[in-house]
Amino acid sequence: MFYIFSYKKFAQFKKKQYLCKPILDKSVVMTDKKSNIIALDSLELGAYVYDFQLDNTYFSGIENTELLGGEASVVARLNLREYDFDLEVEVKGLVQVTCDRCLDAMDVAIDAVEDEWEWDEEPKQLDLSWLAYELIIVNLPLVHSHQEGGCNPEMDALLQDHLCTSLEDEE
Fold this sequence. Notes:
By secondary structure, this protein is α/β, with parallel strands linked by helices. The protein is built from four helices and eight strands. The longest helix has 11 residues.
């Protein structure tokens, strides 16, 4: 059984002798985009937790995206071993997309976790922001539409005026 200790509590373990070294949970709060890129070869072996936010500023900097904005909290857990690593990315929050029916902005709740990533080749660095963005995109619903009665009333009236029914098609 493995135990994850917080980095602050490790100081009390230095004085005692152990057969095996405790796994450290090194928590990092990331504040800017550059710090969301992790150079794997610069890290010591062990467990790391990265906590950061994606906001409207981040989403507006991405070209050709269906996301209009949003606020998402991201927690990435990295377990770096000698020859490989495990990565789990968890994203929670709200993102804005365009409603397919009325073309107004709408919020979509995101609550996603991914721990199985495929790489073309072994990565030298990880862009945690981009991985979180990809996780958000694949967890969006295929159809973006407000719940019944939530669409823009003007656009809803226009859609109803131009709606074809089976009786109109027969005539």
